[in-house]
Structure formats: structure tokens, C-alpha cells
Amino acid sequence: MNTPLILITNDDGIQAAGIQALTRAVAAIGDIYVVAPSGARSGAACAITATMPVTYREIPCHPDYPAQVHLFECSGTPVDCVKLAWDNILPRTPDLLLSGINHGDNASISVHYSGTMGAVFEGCMKDIPSIGLSLYLQRGQRYEEHPVSADTLAAITRLCQHVIERGLPQDVCLNINFPVAETFRGWQVCRQARGRWTAEWASATNPHGLKAYWLTGQFNDLEPEATDTDFAALRAGYASIVPVTIDMTAHSVLQQINELTD
Amino acid sequence: MNTPLILITNDDGIQAAGIQALTRAVAAIGDIYVVAPSGARSGAACAITATMPVTYREIPCHPDYPAQVHLFECSGTPVDCVKLAWDNILPRTPDLLLSGINHGDNASISVHYSGTMGAVFEGCMKDIPSIGLSLYLQRGQRYEEHPVSADTLAAITRLCQHVIERGLPQDVCLNINFPVAETFRGWQVCRQARGRWTAEWASATNPHGLKAYWLTGQFNDLEPEATDTDFAALRAGYASIVPVTIDMTAHSVLQQINELTD
Q1: Which parts of chain A fold into alpha helices (H)?
Q2: How far is residue B73's CA from residue B58's CA, in Å, rounded to a whole number?
Q3: Chain B contact for A35, CB < 8 A?
Q4: Of A172, A189, A191, the CB nearest to B261
Q5: ipTM, interface predicted TM-score of the complex
Q6: For residue A1, is pLDDT > 80?
Q7: Which of A41, A160, B15, B216 is least surrounded by Cβ atoms within 10 Å, i.e. has the fewest?
Q8: pTM of the model
Q9: DSSP notation for B241-262
Q10: Which residues in chain A touch residue B249, judged by CB atoms under 8 angstroms apart?
């Protein structure tokens, strides 16, 4: 068997500590191509750059990446990175796509806004086994001060080896979130919690006298008593794994919706 | 019962013919608030503006909108529009959110890239009955030359009335696509087709000698023989309705994924 080809991206950009830690964690188990945004693309979701051209360039060497890694930075979104890698950069079909480690969680409904997970969905649409990884930092916590622990990184390496060997079900990818913790307590496979963001805007008058709004917000877990959700796993100190499908059809209500068309 | 409150947005911007036609189609059945991007945001998906401030302004009158409509344009993404409307603009909880009519389809996996549907997901996360509407134009076709027909608009009005009266299931919204057609043939409730975009980049050397890439691509329906998908409905001349869930959990494979964590 050839050495596995692993494509790595993120939405925090190539300089982020999370993607560098992730790259080091899997550098020994594959040929690594990192194709990541040139800077922060937080909240990019599955956005594509539809109206502007995108550029990318190879970075021959970088002090924070292992020497054997093929490293590229791209002007576009995380999804653009995967599409560019697929069509123009990778020498063959990758055996695994990793996105992250995001500086901040992507649990519950945040899966929809996440550029980290956008790249993962794009990989899944291309039939690449694809995994997003995110760290659940509290507001004000920085990744650099609460990095993912060494044994957590070792658990990531093992999980990646299993996914390379066994693959993932068709149209399914993984949304993984880690709690801030000194040691790795274990995995919990779970479902996406129901949640709601509220109080989402802070405003200020800008220097031109115009009121301007910054996104902020308070996340509310709508199922705080549930034990089978991603947030329940995180609260209990476990790493959550939500298998996510790119088929968004609500199959169970097809008949019910049919009645609306009378 | 109060007059229903209807929030309308899109990803083509407030000047687009599609949102103007949609607004006229429902102006008689509700109090209408249009809060839409100031220009094109195609491919914005669920992107939020995370690093920059967002602004909006009311437009007191506009020749292409009915006089009684409350009209706002926003510098942000479609999701930003819904969040701003919710927190800062609307006088009460809306009874219906409409997004579109998009100039181009959002069937199959394009649901993931769609700014039109991004706004719909945001509405659904806020428990607003939410519907995205898109017109399946072939490459080179323009909405203005192939507008949605008058009887299609009448069917939209009827469907909106039903949804206002009966609501939608929890965490479910609708992704509707219309074929280009002289008359309305009917609705088909269906599932999202499996599909794949290929050959996604066109390149050219820019004036600075740098190779630049524009997104393009060829869509391939991976289930051309299926009769229960959105593309099958469109090919047969029907308007497709896919009920879409914001719970992306692949519930049927939870146990299978558990085996990866040994």
C-alpha cells in the first residue's frame, strides 16, 4: 500500500497553532499536503469565492511545520482550499482530509457557520474520508494557553489511522470537538445538540457617524439535560464525535410536507 | 389574528429581479420586511461576518418594491441579514421567512454553498418557518429573460399561506427549486439528489504575472435514473420541494462510528 495522502486545511489560517499541532500529529503516518487560507476565515461556512479570482502559492519552508510537509497558502475560503487542492495541487486522491484544529468549538448548530466544517463537507462531497477537529475554548481563552494535550493528539493520530484503514460511510464525515483538558478522557459518539444563539450584535457608532454592528452572541444549549449530545460529552470532559451527513433531506417528514402542497 | 409578518431576504442583493418578484407575490398576505444584502453574495452559504462590522440602512422608497414594504439593505451576508433583522429591525417574531427567488438553482449539494439557503437555515435555527426559492437557469440564461411565471408566483403565494397557517416541523425548512417554464406544472416533494461538481477552476495569468483561479465547474447528477430527487422533479418540469433539516447528525451510523474509537 502507498503511504496515505493526507490533505489538511482549516479556517484560522496557516499561521494558527491548531493546524500546526494537527500537522505534527499525523506527519508520521502519511504524505502531508497542507492547503490552508492565508489568514483567518472564521465563520466562512461552506462559502465559495464566486465573484473574485483566487490565488495560492507554495511555501518552501516554514519553521512551524515539519520539513517534509507540502505547504500551500490560499487567498480563498476553506472550501476554496479543498477545491484548489483537488483540481490543481494534489498528486492523487487523498485518503483523508483533516480540518482544524479550530481555535473555538463547532458543536451544535455552530456546525452550520463553521469554515472548519465547510472544508470537511467539501471533502465529503468528493468522497474523501473527512474529519473536522475543534477545541471548545471559553470566551477569552486562547489556544496557545490551552493547547490540545499530547495524549489527545496521540488519540487523533490513532483515530486517523482507523479512518484511513476502514473509511467512513457514504456521505458521512465527522465533527469532532475537544474540551480544554490536561489529559484525554476518551471519545463519545453523539448527536448534534439543539441550540440557539441570542443577543448576537454589539453596536457602536463608527468614525463616520454610522452605526456599525459586530457579531457576538450568547450560545444556549436547548437540551441541557440530554446525555447523548455533543455538548453533553464536552461538559463531561469527553471528546465529542458527531457523524454528520451532507444529505440534508429531512426524510421522516416527506409525507407531512406533501400535505402542504394541496 | 394579526397580519402575518414576513421577512424576505436573498443572496443576489436588493436590486435583483427575483427578490422583487417574490416580494410582490406575497405583499398582499402580510406585513413585509425586506432585509437583503446591498449587492451579490452568491456562494455565501451560512457565512457570517466575523471580523468586520456590518451596517444597514432603511431605504424609504424604491420603484421596484410595493410602497407598503419596509425595505433595508445590509453590508453583510444573507445570514447577517436575518440576524440583524431578528435583533434590531423586526417589530415582532416573523411568521414566515422567504429567501430568493435566487437567480440559479440550489438543488442537490448546492444547498451547502447557497447563500439563499444559508438565510433559510438561520431562520430555521430561530424557529421561523423558512423557505428558500431558486430558479434553475442554464448557464448563460438570465432571470430577466426567463422570469418565474405568473401562475408559479400564485402557487408560491398559496404555499406561503399554508405554511403560515400550519407551520413546519421542528428544525425543518424548505428548499424549493423551479424549472424555467411558461406555466406552473405542480409541486413535487422530494429528496436532495447526490451530485458532484467537477472541473471547478478556470485559470488565467493576472496583470501582475500571478496565476489566478476563478470558480466555475460542471455539475454531475450521480443519480440520473432516480425519480424521487430534486433534479428528477426539475427535469420533469415540476417545482421541487426538499424538506431540509438543520440537524446534520447521521443518526443511522452512530453505532458504526463508535467502532472507530476502539
Answers
A1: 17-26, 78-84, 115-125, 150-166, 230-235, 254-258
A2: 7
A3: no
A4: A189
A5: 0.96
A6: no
A7: B216
A8: 0.97
A9: EEEEES--B-GGGHHHHHGGG-
A10: 191-192, 242-245
